């Protein structure tokens, strides 16, 4: 995939998954208000700005104030998901000036599904289970709690809603050593877009460096192919980016979440 192809793919990614985005969870509402596309969760899930494109600094400042008013009236904290090519170029500084807190940046990585290894090789002693029943979420949530920390209740609500109301949007995998969950991840599908997203991928520290993550990427790539997706995308941390590059992913953009003032 050359630089021209990446630029074309980035334009499609922006258009399909950001500007023209639909709700990414049951019960959420997506609206386009001027130069902003935002999602408002109805069940305590993810709320935030998905896309924006401003022609001037004044327009950006007015939109920032409008989103603070909107989500404030809803009583919701929210995230402004900024990509490095969003305009104006100093949008991040303007969000900071408005009281937003920047979290750690990640790199959007992409790959063509057909170019990836889709035959996972699992380390000895590990098996993978597909989770389709909300009653079986405990292992997934335990892995995420131990790896990522924080409150996993929003994730539990989101996955419960997807598994019961929108089964075509998620494929959830749990890797176990015997009965011990050691890694959990999901494939988020956006039917009709050509894209599927890799999310989660948390592995317990004592199981890292054994190829679990690599096998789980191949496993999800195979599932994406069966679902008709052409491209995989993932918001990669500094730790996972080198692994993904070795597997054939290319960087598309740097993204930084800005959290609203509370």
TrEMBL record:
A Pfam family that the UniProt record links to this protein: Acetyltransf_1
Keywords: Transferase
Matching InterPro entries: Acyl_CoA_acyltransferase, GNAT_dom
SUPFAM superfamilies named among the record's database cross-references: Acyl-CoA N-acyltransferases (Nat)
UniProt domain N-acetyltransferase: residue ranges: 126-262
Molecular functions per Gene Ontology: acyltransferase activity, transferring groups other than amino-acyl groups
Name used for this protein in its record: Acetyltransferase (GNAT) domain-containing protein
Native organism taxonomy: Bacteria, Bacillati, Actinomycetota, Actinomycetes, Kitasatosporales
